[in-house]
Design a protein that fits this description.
The complex is a heterodimer.
Chain A (H helix, E strand, L loop, with lengths): L1 H11 L2 E10 L2 E9 L4 H8 L4 E11 L7 E15 L4 E8 L2 E8 L2 H9 L4 E4 L7 E14 L3 E6 L3 E5 L4
Antiparallel strand pairs in A: 1-2, 2-7, 3-4, 3-8, 4-5, 5-6, 8-9, 8-10
Chain B lengths: L2 H12 L1 H24 L4 H40 L5 H37 L2 H36 L5 H15 L3 E6 L2 E7 L21 E7 L2 E9 L5 E7 L2 H22 L1 H49 L14 H36 L3 E6 L4 E4 L1 H7 L3 H4 L2 E2 L9 H9 L4 E7 L6 E10 L7 E8 L1 H43 L4 H30 L7 E4 H11 L8 E6 L5 E4 L1 H18 L5 E9 L2 E7 L9 H4 L15 H11 L3 E6 L5 E8 L4
Parallel strand pairs in B: 13-15
Antiparallel strand pairs in B: 1-2, 1-5, 3-4, 4-5, 6-7, 6-11, 7-8, 9-10, 10-11, 12-14, 15-16, 16-18, 17-18
Helix pairs in contact in B: 2-3, 3-4, 3-8, 4-8, 5-6, 5-7, 8-9, 13-14, 15-16, 16-18
Amino acid sequence: MIVAVILLAAAVAPDLRVTKLAPAPGRLVAQVTLRGEAPAEWTEALSGGAKVSVTYRFRLYRSRSWLWDQRMGAHELVVKAERDPLTGTFALTAEYDGEILASGQAGSLEETLRRMLSPLPVDMSVPLKHEPLLLFVRAEFMTRYTLLVIPRAVGTGWVQITVPEAP
Amino acid sequence: MSDWRRRWQRYRRQNRVLIALYVFLLVAVGAGYALLNRLRGLPPEELANRLLVFMLWWFDLTLIVILLFILLRNFVKLALERRYGILGSRFRTKLLLSFLVVIVGPTGLLFLLSAALLSSAATLWFSAPVGGMVRAGAALAETARSEAEHRVQRTAQTVASRLAPVPGRSARLVELERLHALLGSQLTGWWQDGIPIVELVDPRQSSLQRLPPLSSDALTSNGVRGEHFGGTVVVRAWRRLPDGSVVVTGEALPPALVEAQGRLAAGGAAYERLKLERPAITATVVLGFGGLALIVAFGAIWLGLYLSRRFTDPLLALAATTQRVAGGQSLEEVPLPAEDEVGLLVDSFNSMVRRLRAREEELRSAVHRLDTVLGAVRTGVLTLDSTREFVTGNPAAAAMLGVPALVLKPMPLMELQGSGLQRLVETIRDATGPVRGSLTIFPGGIVHHLEMALVPLGAPAQPEGWVVALEDLTQLLRAQRQAAWSEVARQIAHQIKNPLTPIRLAAERMIRHGARGSPELEKVVREGGRAIVEHVSAMQEMVDSFARYAKLPPLARRSVAIGELLRQVATLYQGVRAGLVIEATDESGGRELLLDPEQFRQVLTNLLDNAIEASPKGGRVTVGVRWQDQDALITVTDEGTGLDVEDTEVLFQPFYSTKGRGSGMGLAMVQRIVADHGGTIRLEPNQPRGVRAVIRLPGERA
């Protein structure tokens, strides 16, 4: 039974993929998308009118052979959505590192989910001269608590991808 | 102890520092946690929730740790106290365990039940029926809006279908106005190229008159949209005509309905938010109740420990003091204020201690006085314990026995064996009751004659100790001996001087008559010679009596029927004087006495001689014997003139005579023979007249 639960959990966990990775001198544009079902509890809360969000965490590391990898930057993209039950529309907001990146409305839940799970690309600054960079990304839907008090994020695991060299 | 350490001990006892430290830690940890989460960018409401849960969790955790620490510390302390047998540990253990069982158990049970009830209540709150109700409410609001959308869409379609075949702008405007009135639409408009040509508004719906235009992007196709405007929701639908113009119809939902829908929607949204925060809510409630239960348990345990200390501390202090007092270490009072029954007990104990202290002071004073007296008296006093193994003495005893160490401390009785003290030791060791006697010791080669009295202390059967009184008679005996010799010399001189005078006178008379050739010389010589011979004979007799007194033969004791002996002696005197009655009364019952019959016959003879001589004509002399206890009382009674009181004491001294003749040795010899037999003799007046001599001789002891 435990194995079944683990397999089920693995089956419903969304899969995070980096769909776009465009390095440029001093910049890196990355876009991610989530495949699969979002947590049912989260979706229910969204459709029920609660304000929910997806937090995409980007960590950029400089890969070093003999030392631990050096952290070069950390960024957060938070996509928030809240349904207006009176008009049936969903208000969407994307904040990148605490600043509003974009906002808009969606007429349906499906459109809202699509726009939340495939957010806008983000632009990160990187050093001009650097060793190979590693990008770590994960998505978090909400927080649960272990032993009543220890917060635990519900989301994907960290996805690691090597950043190609800028042309 | 340093000043800081002393301060810390004082503050620690007051617990204020500990409480302040705990609160400071609580605040510091909470602030740290809040700062950490703030840095993570948490929204304020989630931060508040997390902080509350964390503070409760920290509070519960620290209380559990403190509780366990206190319990563990006290249990370890009690276990050690029990192991080392410290007074009161068993009572404290029982009290603490009782508190734990009575308070902590029910509190824990109550907490578990409460947590379970709250958890199930939260589960019920977020259960499917409640969620269904919330969703139904939201669906109701959705339906109302959808119905409005459908209505305006149908209206738009109807208007577009009727307006499409109408040629010309004016005709279309007329038709549009007609349809607006006919369909009862709240908003009917005709747009071309993104610009409203006409908008017909129901005058009752003033909010629709200020509507913002639809975006040109939206107007590229048919559609419907709901928007918040003017405190209500306005639903607009648009439909394109074949010529590219757009028909727009609209409707404003009733504000009351919108308001109700808004409340319903807000409730649904709040419910969904709560659902998301359900773990935090459950944690808050459970931790809150846990904290409450822990506070109760903490308070109960603290109260138990406090009460156990409060109950047992006075009792322990009292018991410890009692032990010290019972052990003779000190006579101290219990320094506790009198409040309750324990205080009454303490007061009683302190009163008892004060009385004991006063008694001890009196006893010490009495002992001091006794020591002073014993140190001052010339009588030697030895004290021994009940086992008679150790002996102490006063300075006089130490000096008499030549053992100075006797004064300093108790010393073993057997160490007094030397210096001729063996007999003293044996007498003390073997005594079964009071003993009196004389003792001759020679400590340091000097002879001491002691009179000894050994007396048991307390009941004779189980004496608590023994006391020996020693009287040194050496000097007294020496003085008595010197006095006796002086008296003997005086008496001998007196006795010899009396006959010497007539002898000298007779001799001088014969010399005078011989010198002048007196014709009476022969007669004078004859008379003088006779007188000289008589006086020399008297002197000879006196010397013989001295010799007899001085050298009495040793006693030849044998069993003698005392009554028979008395009758024999009395018979010899029958008829010795005319008119004198001599009678013997024998009440001895034929019992015998162990005595020397010859010497005792001499005693009776001397007493009878005196009695007969003192008796008047026609008098009566009685000799009798009777028993008193184990002693024989022998009496010789006459009816003479009697004796002066002072004579009764001196008559037994040698050379004393009231008759003016004789050696005065008769009664002295009587007393000596009686004394040699272990008896006593006294002279007492006889009633109605005369003298009675009473001899008490010890009989054979059983």
